[in-house]
Amino acid sequence: MTGYEISPWQLRWSGLDLDALQRTESTFAVSNGHIGLRGTLEEGEPRGLPGSYLNGFFERRTLPHAEAGYGFPESGQTVVNVTDGKIIRLLVGDEPLDVRYGSTPSHERVLDFRSGTLRRRTEWVSPTGRRVLIESERLVSFTQRAVAAIHYEVTPLDDDLQLVMQSDLLANEPIDPGTGDPRLTAALRSPLQAEFAECQDCRAVLVHRTAHSGLRMAAAMDHVIGDVDGLRTAIHTEGDLARLTAAADVPRGQPLRLTKFLGYGWSSQRSTPAVRAQVDAALAGALQTGWERLLAEQRSYLDDFWNSADVEIDGDPELQQAVRFGLFHVLQAGARGESRAIPAKGLTGPGYDGHAFWDSETFVLPVLTYTVPEAARDALRWRHSTLDKARARAAELGQRGAAFPWRSVNGEETSGYWPAGTAAFHIGADVADAVARYLHATGDTGFERAFGVELLVETARLWSSLGHHCPHDGFRIDGVTGPDEYSAVADNNVYTNLMAQRNLREAAAACERCPDVAVALDVGPEETARWRNAAEAMLVPYDEVLGVHPQSDEFTEHAEWNFAGTPARSYPLLLHYPYFDLYRKQVVKQADLVLAMHLRGDAFTPEQKARNFAYYEARTVRDSSLSACPQAVLAAEVGHLELAYDYLAESALTDLHDLHHNVRNGLHIASLAGSWIAVVAGLGGMRDHDGRLCFAPRLPAQLTRVVFRLHYRGSHLTVEVRPDEATYRLVDGAPLHAEHHGEPITVTVGPPVTRPIPPPPAAPAAHQPPGRAPVRRARITGSAG
Hints:
Largest sheet: 10 strands, antiparallel
Strand order of the largest sheet: 1-2-10-11-12-13-20-17-16-15
Helix content: 25-40%
Number of helices: 18
Distance between the termini: 21 Å
Number of strands: 32
Shape: globular
Radius of gyration: 27 Å
């Protein structure tokens, strides 16, 4: 039997399933936000989709347009599969290890969330009957940013054997371009041009450069090989390959051990000698540390993380595993990215060309802000580093301020589809929202003065320029695309308007707090007054007839989509129906108005939220992995706790169950982050409007206990939710003022604060489009029990 085994702190796959390699290479990926290594087998073959990535390292490509238009981006960016250092080939006698041949009595791989390593144990019998045990463990270091390492050992089980290991650095691996799905990647053939190669003793280094983006990268390897009598080694380089060969006659039962240390680095400006020196230094540090201390450092780093971030779920072991799996991969995506973006797939695969989108700020950064705030700070610093590009883009579009890209690796707009790219101006407000949340949660005045105020000011200037005061109905923002990709170029998208409103208010407040910074940015009282006036007059459409908020002007007047006549095979709709028809019907790809009710819940009454939720639930098809999370949050708030549980599970299990059939191209990092949001903001009812921390926890009947942890203004808070009560404990830090179901509470170090949980509100019935209901989790957990 093959498949994932349920375990609270591990992702374990037992048995050999070659057809599953493409999926498990994504789920078993290891990364630190700077280096990413897909979970391919060490021997290199068989494989699904090879991948080694450096955050921000890309190649340019021509961006085709059916018809040219002013302001259309002319070039795209695609993440590059860089030099692969994972490969360790093995010859047993004269037979290469290849699990497609001979037999594999046992095969197990384990991604350990506490050790931060991927372990493997394989028993293989060659076609001629030679039996060996292969054990390996790999990591990408959280503490030494440029370092990865693999410990690999082979033990003859029946006879003395000659073993030969070949440890490679290999550039320009061929890649299967995949399918015609536009959400996938544009594969590049041989994107790396060799510039330098050198080898000596057990060390080798390769330096390559991209032809069009002009980026230079270096990869280096060094080795420590266990003592074996008669060991012979040789090393050489040729073109895109560097190879260390180690051969020995190994007695039965004695392992041949090899530890491979890898150093990676890249630069857009540094010379070949400089990037070579960079990876040489990384290797020197790794060798000085040694394998065992690298393991210890990794474990210590993760101990600190889990102490601040762990989520405990009693009553659903698979969901417990999935939420920790998601948190671990979110950490891997953002921990050491530092001056780089957090791509939608992290560094687990080439999907979406390695681009970052607005979901980094809206889904990933809330998790990091409350668990690893320094990682959230680094991601926002990356946005700040792209401000010049964003200002240039706004000017190109005839606007003031900064217009951040819909999708990008380096901050330039690379979307070839203008209704989603150019018109999706809400990204600026998403960035501003993430800045404001970070500032409120951390009180980081240094960041505010150096980066935060300018981000808030330039995004506010865009809204002031883009919108206009109308004598009929207030401040309008017309011709924009909100989060829902089945609607485009609409007027007064509620999400966009409400997020812009917050952006304008936060910018004005930041300028008041930092008047000298405001002066340096040429912001005067007249400009902040204009921002406040626009925010106060912001138009929020409302349909008086139906008693709901239209997603944008006149949305509720559009024709209904024929859900009953849409076969299951026609989802996702974007691959089977023309966009023009999607745009003019009441069909929602992903939560839009519902997301607004989460992030701007202070702008809606409880009754409005309940009616809006029921209305949009019946029209949302969840063709995006970003939808289940906000639907879980609002379902919990309005009283649909079982539905919230279903959506929480969908968000958490998106990749482990491959719900969107594309995990081969990498994980959905925002959906994994969404599982934390669905627990904390959904079941925990946490809100942070205007920096006030409020909780309104409730559990579905299937769960008996949920515990989550938060880092807030230097304090560590633990919230324990049971069916009838919630307990708040301050582990350390200053007293924390919050609310529990509207009641003010103060939590201090010492005795916890426990409060009863009121019953959920009565809510209108909620129904999904035919065939689009989430899997009912209660049935699964009930039958499993």
